[in-house]
Design a protein that fits this description.
Layout (H helix, E strand, L loop, with lengths): L3 H12 L15 H16 L3 E4 L5 E5 L8 E7 L12 H16 L7 E7 L12 H7 L17 H8 L16 E9 L4 H5 L3 E7 L1 E10 L3 E2 L11 H17 L6 E8 L8 E2 L2 E10 L2 H22 L2 E10 L2 E2 L2 H13 L6 E4 L4 H5 L5 E6 L16 H17 L9
Parallel strand pairs: 3-4, 3-5, 5-15, 6-14
Antiparallel strand pairs: 1-2, 2-4, 6-13, 6-15, 7-11, 7-12, 8-10, 9-11
The protein binds zinc ion (ZN).
Length: 415
């Protein structure tokens, strides 16, 4: 084994750099971010790259082409984590790319493009409540208003960048030139059970799901739990319960393209055991790799909820407050990845990504592609139980290396 065991050892090293002893929590612009980034810089240099922190705290490693005017291919993923995270989410996409460069460099092989490996400082958004800050900057979607966002201690993003030694005024300059970037590719642990259940080490991602979030309020009439006869009630919670099941049923019937979740539901004020609930608020989260199907589901689910509300005599307020379009992976890059998977003797499985990734933001400036790696333990992620085997890390790295050596920037794919 050439790469797999090293990558897992490096993931252990990074996993031990944490804000909370005993579990992995590493957030943006903290001393732990600096320490993890410094390790990554050292590994990048050892692999034959130039590497440094950029003004936002991303680590950027470069393996330059001989021709200074050659196009750019970027890969990478995030080095921050959620609270009490797994060790491979994000980190794997950085380490696998460093392993590829180390292999190329040892053979004295340069690529027909300059290869950048980026360890994004923030993807999860734990500290400042804005996700994908690193890739938003490189993709040109960093809103200067983010700089005023504050963490739990009242420190603004602007101050935190300065304290880290970065430069908030230089963020606009981090946007990569779309004319130069031939592709952005990201390797990532699947964070779900599809590859595991099918006995496959890797899969080629078709699209990253878009999402809609809706704030729903159901208003009935509060009343005494003992005196209001059952047929006369306008129970907001019973109506909401029926709506929650309608969301589930609608998405279950279209489970190949749609996910729907009610993850938050409350009776304002907390409710009381002897009071018929007069008010309920809940949120709906709808996701799909296909925007038209998501938008169709949004209309259909609202209509179902309105029917339930009318039948039960309650009022419905339906307020979508967040929309994110799906990011499609470039078909020619998918085909290139599929060929590289087949070259390792593995069956080719295409699958969508239900979770968001840095590649979504990079899709603004370049054709994107993603490789998923099997996630053990039932596919659990964002959790210390997240696992990956050295064999799968090895296979995925061989796939990426094959991809990089066969990718022709003169025909980078459509965008
Ligand atoms: Zn991730």
């Amino acid at each position: 084994m050439r790469y797999g065991s090293t990558i897992l050892e490096q993931a252990e090293v990074l996993g031990a750099i944490t804000e909370e002893p005993g579990r992995v929590t590493r957030t943006f612009l903290t001393p732990q971010h600096r320490e993890a980034g410094s390790r990554i810089i050292a590994w990048m240099r050892d692999a034959g790259m130039e590497a440094a922190f950029d003004p936002l705290g991303n680590v950027v490693g470069r393996y330059a082409a001989e021709n200074p005017d050659a196009p750019l291919v970027i890969t990478g993923s995030h080095m921050d984590s959620v609270v009490n995270a797994g060790k491979y989410d994000g980190v794997f996409g950085i380490l696998t790319a460093i392993a590829c460069v180390k292999d190329l460099h040892a053979r004295g092989k340069r690529l027909p493009y300059t290869f950048e490996v980026v360890a994004f400082g923030d993807e999860e958004g734990v500290r400042f409540g804005v996700t994908l800050i690193g890739s938003k900057a490189l993709g040109g979607n960093f809103d200067p208003a983010f700089l005023d966002k504050k963490d739990a201690n009242g420190i603004s993003l602007r101050e935190a960048i300065r304290n880290f030694g970065g430069d908030p005024d230089a963020i606009a300059s981090l946007k990569r030139d779309p004319r130069k970037v031939a592709a952005f590719v990201e390797s990532h642990i699947e964070q779900g059970p599809v590859l595991l259940n099918e006995g496959l080490p890797v899969g080629v991602v078709t699209s990253i799901a878009g999402g809609t979030r809706v704030r729903v309020r159901v208003t009935g009439t509060a009343g005494h739990a003992g005196t209001v006869p059952m047929p006369a009630r306008r129970d907001a919670l019973a109506a909401a319960a029926e709506m929650v099941l309608a969301v589930e049923r609608h998405c279950l019937e279209r489970a190949d393209t749609l996910c729907g979740t009610v993850g938050k539901l409350a009776i304002p004020g907390g409710g009381a055991i002897n009071v018929i609930p007069g008010d309920v608020e809940f949120n709906v989260d709808l996701r799909s790799g296909d925007d038209s199907r998501r938008l169709a589901a949004l209309v259909a689910v609202e209509a179902e909820c309105a029917t339930i509300a009318a039948r039960r005599g309650v009022e419905l307020s339906w307020e979508p407050f967040f929309h994110l379009s799906a990011a499609l992976c470039d078909t020619r890059l998918q085909a290139r990845f599929a060929a590289s998977v087949a070259a390792q003797g593995c069956p080719v499985r295409h699958l969508p990504s239900g979770a968001g990734h840095d590649a979504m933001e990079m899709a603004r400036i370049a054709p994107i592609a993603m490789l998923f790696v099997r996630c053990g333990n039932g596919g659990i992620s964002h959790n210390p139980l997240e696992t990956m085997t050295a064999e799968d890390a090895e296979t995925a790295t061989s796939v990426l290396l094959h991809f990089l050596e066969h990718f022709d920037p003169a025909s980078p794919g459509t965008h």
